[in-house]
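look at this stuff:

>
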Amino acid sequence: MENRSKPARLGPSGADLPSLESDTVIQGDAVAHEYAPGRLKGSGPVAIIDIGSNSVRLVVYERLSRSPMALFNEKELAGLGRGIAGTGKLNDQAVEAALAAMRRFMGLCDQMQVQSVHVLATAAAREASNGAAFLAQVEEITGADVSLLSGPEEARLSAMGVLSGIHDPDGIAGDLGGGSLEVVDIQGKKIGLGETFPLGGLRLEEMSEKTLKKAEKIATDALANSAVLAKGEGRPFYAIGGTWRSLARLHMRQKGYPLHIMHEYAIPADEALDFCRMVARRDAESLDSIEAVSKSRRLLLPYGAIVLEQVIRVMKPSVIILSALGVREGLLYDLLDEETRATDPLISAAEELALLRSRSPGHVRELGPWTGLALAAVGIDETAEEARLRTAACLLADIGWRAHPDYRGEQSLNLIAHGSFVGIDHPGRAYLALANYYRHEGLVDEHLSSRIRELATTRLIERARALGAALRVAYLVSGSMAGVIPRTRIEVRGDQLTLVLPPDRAMLAGSRLQRRVAQLAKLGALKPAIVVEDID
C-alpha cells in the first residue's frame, strides 16, 4: 500500500463535492459492489497507524478531505515507553503486543479496502536502543515506510492538527504523549517556535519513581525556562493528548456539563489550575465521577494534571481549550493541497452532510445569502463569525427531513449538537442546533431542554430564533427545491417587511406563508406584506 495519496478536492462552494461511495458485500466467493449513500467517495479510505509511547492506534478515515471522518478507530495500550527511562530499551512484552496489534490493524485495513496507509512513530521508538529493529518489523508487517518523527516534527504536526480543527487559532498548542510533551506557538496559519520536553505521562511516572512530589519538581524545572510558553500569556492553551482528554472528561462529568463533545471544550485557566491541583494531590479512585475515566488512563491522570498545572503557571493562559485533533489529523491536513487547506472545515462538513441527507443540496446553499438579507431586514446585525455560523446552519437546515414531523426539530437539534464537526466551539454548536430546532418547531421553547440553551449566549439565542423564523418562510416558498429562493426578495418598505414573489410564483402567497412572514416581521417590529412583481 502506498504511504501517500493524492488529496480529494473539496471546494467551499460545494460545486465539486465528491460523488457518493459504493460499498462492498460478499456474495459467495465473489465481491459485489452495492450503492452506499452514507459514504462519500474520494482518495480513500486512508489509514494512519500511530505508534506512541503508551498506545498504538489505528484510525481509518473515510477519505482525505478538509473535514475527515473516521470510519474506524482502535487502540492497543501496549506501553512501549514503559521502562525506557531505566533500561533504554523497548520492553519485549510491549513489542510483541504492539506487533500483534499491527497484524490485526493490517487485516482490518485489508477488509476496509484502505487505499493508503501512513505509519507514524514518536518518542519511544526514536529513543530506544532497539527502536530501529522494532520499526523494521513494523514496516515488514504494514508494507509502509514508518515516519519516525523528531521532537520538532511531532510539534509541527500537532500544530497542524490544531490548525485543521480550530478556526483562526492564536495560542500555544501542547501535545502530551506517553514519552514527551511538545509545545508550539500558533498564530492564524503561522506555526512558530516549538519545543519538546521529556514529560510524557509514562516517562514522568518512571523518572519520579511514582512519587508525585518529585514529579512536580521535574515538571517545574523542565518548563521554567520555556521560550514557547513565555509567549503565551493571556492567550489560549490548546491541550492535545489522551491523558488531558481524560482530565477534561472528568471535569465535564463533575460539572454536569450538558454536551459530551471533547473538541473545543473550554475551561477558564484559573479553574483548570485549581482542578489540576486537586487531581494531582488526591488518590484517583477517591475523585468524584472518576468512573468517567477508563481504568487504563487513571494511573497517569495525576501526572497529566501535574504537567498541565505547571504549563498554566508558566504560561498564564486565558483558557484551556481541548483539541481532539493532533498529530494524526495534522498529517492528513499536511497531505492536502494549499487550496483545500484554505477551505473552512465547518462549512465543508456541513456541505457534505447536506449532500448526504438533505432533499436538495442546491437549495440549502441558496439559503445563506437569502437569510442574511432577511436578518438584516429585521434589524439583526452579525459579526463575521456569526455570518459564518449562519451559513453552516443553513446548509444543515434539511438534514432531519426523514424523521417523523413531530420529532424533526428534536432530531435535527441532536444530530447537530452531537455531530462530528470541527472548526466550531460549543456556543457555536448550540446556535446551529437551536436555529434548526426553531426552523422545525416554531419560535417556542416549551419542549426544548434548557441545557442546550445554557451553552449559547443571549445574543446567539436571539440570532438563532431570527434565523429559524427566516428559514420557516424560505421553506414555505421553495418547497425545499433549488432555484426558487434566488428569484424572491425580502426587504423593508416603510414600516413593512415585504416578501417579493415573481409573477409566475404568485400562487405561493397563501395564508400559511402570510403567517410565517408575520412571525418574522414581528421580530423587527414591522408589519408583514407579500407582493407580486417582476424581479430583475
Summary: The two ends are 56 Å apart (CA to CA). The longest strand covers residues 30-40. The chain has three domains: 20-148, 152-329, 345-484. Residues 363 and 481 are 6 Å apart (CA to CA).
